[in-house]
Amino acid sequence: DQQVKQNSPSLSVQEGRISILNCDYTNSMFDYFLWYKKYPAEGPTFLISISSIKDKNEDGRFTVFLNKSAKHLSLHIVPSQPGDSAVYFCAASPWGYTNAGKSTFGDGTTLTVKP
Amino acid sequence: DTGVSQDPRHKITKRGQNVTFRCDPISEHNRLYWYRQTLGQGPEFLTYFQNEAQLEKSRLLSDRFSAERPKGSFSTLEIQRTEQGDSAMYLCASSFPTSYEQYFGPGTRLTVT
Fold it and tell me: For residue range B10-39, what is the model confidence (pLDDT) as tens digits?
């Protein structure tokens, strides 16, 4: 049973437009959510996160939205740039310091931003 | 500090052989994690340490797998009697104990022939 799902394996957008990456989760114990970006031959790099007490977190061009009742989060990238082309992983953790870092990952969405 | 490093980056071995991977975390980080990633999937949690104590192991970590972090610094992951199903990317990550954000190394790609 996959607890974190990214239903779109790939997404292609034009440079300058908005990229929206989606993620759904099933475990009600998840209280902290993260997005990681991964380039080929590198490990995942932390991008942005959100706790369940918020519904939005913004960092520059990146915004994460959380709909806890729907168990859904999304990552918006505006404007998209060719350097954003990468695999994006959604990850979720239960609350608490014991659980911090023990993330459950989705299978990733490959974003391609075309010049 | 140059981040999390892993060695080797690639390992090809024959079925039945033992392999050992090393991870050097960011020096200030108390926590160290091992994940496994297969093609087309996200990282799967294997085990983690706080300092030298191994606090949790996933059920994915069979008896053929063992991880150590003897002095609370670098860690090793050993796979005994490798099987073709062990072929994967093995990722190491580190973090502060109260942080959800992890810093990943580049991974060790294992191919079992």
Answer: 999 999 999 999 999 999 999 999 999 999
User: Is B43 exposed, middle or buried (CB count within 10 Å of its CB: 0-12, 13-18, 19+)?
Assistant: buried
Mean pLDDT across chain A, nearest whole number? 94
The whole-angstrom separation of Cα B106 and Cα A19 is 26
Would you state the pLDDT for residue A99?
Answer: 72
Q: With contacts defined as CB-CB under 8 Å, which chain A residues touch B60?
A: none
pLDDT for position A48: 97
B5, B100, B103, B108: best to mutate for the A interface, most A CBs within 10 A: B100
Q: Any CB–CB contact under 8 A between A91 and chain B?
A: yes
Chain A positions touching B91 (Cβ under 8 A) are 43-44
Nearest CA in chain B to A94: B100
- Partner-chain contact A103 B100, CB within 8 Å: yes
**Number of residues in chain B:** 113
Beta strands A72-77 and B88-95, pairing class: unpaired
A63 — contact with chain B (CB < 8 Å)?
no
B42·A41 Cβ contact <8 A? no
Euclidean distance between CA atoms B34 and B23, whole angstroms: 9
Dihedral angle of Cα A94, A96, A101, A105, to the nearest 10 degrees: 10
Question: Residue B1: its pLDDT value, please?
Answer: 55
**Cis previous bond, A79, omega within 30:** yes
